[in-house]
Every structure is written in structure tokens, then in C-alpha cells.
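Q: How would the C-alpha cells look for this protein?
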Amino acid sequence: MDHAAEAHRTDLMTATQHVLNEQSKHPESRGDFSILLNHIVLGCKIVCSAVGKAVLAKLIGLAGVTNVQGEKQKKLDVLSNEVFVKALVSSGCTVGPSIFSLT
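A: Here is the predicted structure in C-alpha cell form.
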């Protein structure tokens, strides 16, 4: 693999584009999996943004809560959990937040 050429590729595809392209190959699909994956991608983008701003937003350090295993949770862990629970529930493709209870 030519790493220099790989660094200058312009034919990149987003996860959303890939999912939609693959879905179009299956006319019988209802789109639930595509919706779910797109909500996961959205959650990833939100968490990525929060990590990039963590110091400025004071998201570094302990959150002051303990999970069910007795571990002290960090602020970014708590935020990530909330983001993904909301993303998955808002997709309409999951049962509800009770299955995601981690605290």
C-alpha cells in the first residue's frame, strides 16, 4: 500500500454514504438498521466533539458518581453514556433506556 497516495485520496466515503449505498442493494429493507447506524454515528460525532473541548468545558476528571461495579466514573464516561443512550433511544430502533442502565 502506498501510504503517500492513501493520504491524498479524494474518493472517501462517509459511514452514512456507505450505509445508504448498501441499503439500496436490498429493496426489501425497511431502513431500521440504517437509522440505528446513523444515530450511532451521530453519537460518535458528539462524543468526539466533547473530547476535543474537554479541557475548556471542564469535562476532565471524576464526575462524583459511582457505577454499579463500585467504580468512580469520569465526566466524559458519564457524558458518553448519556449521549449514546439518547442517540439509541431517539433512533426509534431500541426498546428503551432501562437496558442501558450503567450507573
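The mean pLDDT is 86.

The chain has one domain: 13-92.

Upvote if useful.
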